[in-house]
Amino acid sequence: MPEPGPTAGEVFGDRLPLARRFAEHLVTSGVERGLIGPREAPRVWERHVLNCAVVAELVPVGARLVDVGSGAGLPGIPLALARPDLGIVLVEPLARRVDWLREVVADLGVAIEVERGRAEENVVRRRWEGADVVTARAVAPLARLARWCLPLLRPGGLMLAVKGASAAEEIERDGAAVRRLGGGAPRVEQCGAGIIDPPSTVVVVERERGTGRLDRSGRRRGQA
C-alpha cells in the first residue's frame, strides 16, 4: 500500500485514516473490479486521492455538491473526507460501479449518497437540481459537460471540471457553447500548490442563467 506523504495530513486532518482506507479500496477492489488501472496503484495518492481532495479549495462552506460520472468516487469521496461540512451525492450510471461505491461508502461510514443514473436524465435532475457545486473528473469534453451539469446548479452555482493539460484548449474550443448553455466565461484554477506537484487543473464555470428543462423527447421546453 503506497504511503500518502506528509502533506496528506494537511488536507485530511483527523480524517487521514479514512483517506488511507479509501486509498486501500482503490488499489485492491478498485483495481480488481476495473475502476482504476493496475498501473495507477503506486501513484494513487498524488494522481487520485490528493489530486481530487485539493479541489475543496474552490468549494464554499456547507455546499450541496453533486459529483457527476463519479466512477471510482473521484472527486466526490476525497472531497467528502477532506470537507465533512459538505453534502455530497455521487451520480454514476453503471451498476457495477454503483455497487462498489455503496460498499466503500458503507465501510467508511461517511454521509454520502449514491445515485444510479445520468446527470442528463430528468429523474436525476428533479432529485438533485439546485446544487451549489457540480464536480466532474475525466467525464466528457467541456461543452457536453456543461449541457449535463449546468441544469443541476442553482443560479450562481459552480461547475468544477477537473481537467488535465487540455484545459485551455477546451476553453478555447467550447467557451462559446458553455455561455450559450447558461454558463459564464470558463476559467482555469490551479488547486493544491505546495501539496501536490503539479497542482490540479480545474475549469470553473458559474451558472449565470436558466438552462431550461428537457422534455421526454430530449428537447428543451419552449424549443420548436
Residue stretches low in confidence (pLDDT < 50, at least 5 long) are: 212-224
Q: Supply Rg.
A: 17 Å
Question: How many β-strands, per DSSP?
Answer: 7
Largest sheet data: 7 strands, mixed
Proportion in β-strands = 15-25%
Continuous helix count: 8
CATH topology: Rossmann fold
N-to-C order of helices and strands:
HHHEHEHEHEHEHEE
CATH class: Alpha Beta
Distance between the termini: 56 Å
- In CATH terms, the superfamily is Vaccinia Virus protein VP39
**Overall pLDDT, averaged?**
92
Overall number of domains? 1
Portion of residues in helices? 25-40%
Shape: globular
Binding site for S-adenosyl-L-methionine: 69, 74, 119-120, 137
Family: Belongs to the methyltransferase superfamily. RNA methyltransferase RsmG family.
EC number: 2.1.1.-
Protein name: Ribosomal RNA small subunit methyltransferase G
Written account of the structure:
Belongs to the methyltransferase superfamily. RNA methyltransferase RsmG family. The protein has 224 residues and is an alpha/beta fold. The chain has a single domain (8-206), classed as Rossmann fold. It is 37% helix and 21% strand. It has a 7-stranded mixed beta sheet with strand order 3-2-1-4-5-7-6, with helices on both faces. Helix 2 (16-32) runs antiparallel to helix 4 (76-82). Mean pLDDT is 92; it is low at 212-224.
